[in-house]
Amino acid sequence: MEDPKILETIACREALALAEDLNLTHVIIASNSKQAIADIKNGARGWNGSIVHEISLRATLFRCNFCFEGRDANTEAHNLAKFSLSRGPGRHVSLGQPHDLICIPPVVVFDE
């Protein structure tokens, strides 16, 4: 499956799943697909209707806003989406390289 609208709708669903896993209460989900955002906002019943329905149900758990953001403003997300097409089915988590310990400030504990 490589239909961009369906893939963008799935990405929005996955964003909500991640927000739920992280116990977030306020989320803004941006997509570079105007049609996917319109389908979510209007509760469309097309090819991505079952995904839109799931998003609608899950979105009630949050203060949630879906918005369109042009591709030039979200190149990282676009590149990640292109990369994910090369992965097999299922969910994959990639947290990138571990942080450089030099950049993480040490925790200071004071004894009283």
TrEMBL record:
CDD domains: RNase_H_like
One Pfam family here: RVT_3
Domain RNase H type-1: 4-83
InterPro entries: RNase_H-like_dom_plant, RNase_H-like_EbsB-rel, RNaseH_domain, RNaseH_sf
MF GO annotations: nucleic acid binding; RNA-DNA hybrid ribonuclease activity
Top-level taxon of origin: Eukaryota
Protein's name according to its UniProt entry: RNase H type-1 domain-containing protein
Source species taxonomy: Eukaryota, Viridiplantae, Streptophyta, Embryophyta, Tracheophyta
